[in-house]
Amino acid sequence: EIISGTEIAKQTRARLAEEVKELKEKGVHPGLVIILVGDSPASLSYIKGKQKASEEIGVHFKLERFPESMTEEELLKVIGSYNENPVFHGILVQLPLPAQISETAVIEKISPEKDVDGFHPVNLGRMLTGQKAFLSCTPAGILEMLRIKGIDPSGKHAVVVGRSNIVGKPAGQLLLRENATVTYCHSKTGNLSEITKQADILIAAAGKENLITGKDIKPGAVVIDVGMNRNSQGKLCGDVAFDEAMEVASFLTPVPGGVGPMTITMLAQNTVEAARNTLL
Ligand code: GUN
What we know:
Layout: H1 5-25, E1 31-37, H2 41-57, E2 60-66, H3 72-83, E3 90-93, H4 103-109, H5 121-128, H6 137-148, E4 157-161, H7 168-177, E5 181-185, H8 192-196, E6 201-204, E7 222-225, E8 229-230, E9 236-237, H9 242-248, E10 251-252, H10 259-277
Parallel strand pairs: 1-2, 1-3, 4-5, 4-6, 6-7, 7-10
Antiparallel strand pairs: 8-9
Helix pairs in contact: 1-10, 2-10, 6-7, 6-10
């Protein structure tokens, strides 16, 4: 079965729209500000998707743009002022940033209570220790897709290929929290295929076209493709050879239309949550 992230995202956004309506009746209008330094077309296209999802569910959205030449000090000051601004419950600084600005410094400057990306070390630590936290959007979207499809990770062997701070590492931790047995693989893993073939749930998040082919997948496995690659024809494709995987897997997410729409929807969900938290 192909898991349609597009379809699940649509259902989730309908629910979020209701939640926003209820919050507004209580006098809270959820707001999200995205800060973009420079004018990368890829970043602008990601932001457009985030804006569309926000506005669709009734979240107040603002894009704040600065020139590529902005200094780190200037950006930290802008973040500081949004930390204090009650109109915006979520702050997202679009990555990557120009070389003169430290991503670590920027992420740490965002108030953990407004860190709807879930990148702040406080949120990562809270997630790791099982406390309430903003979860990184892609891993949260993966878990939500599994939940809606009735796939319970408990007792299963989950293999995560890729160890980025924003996808691979937190995805493995969330699966662990759901009682999966988790193995991490990465670019230095020698016997990748031997390990991926043991996966009941396989998360491909390495950013490499055709890394996972049919022979790397256990029959009946659930395969989640997080890759966002451009192939030689410039077409968007994942890390999994889709047609081959279809022959072997029980569930498979496509690219595009799989994890991507869920990521954006989880950002909207985190923003609604941040707004709701101001009522506590
Ligand atoms: N750049 C690419 N993906 C993301 C994301 O999820 N959040 C931020 N802040 N920047 C990104």
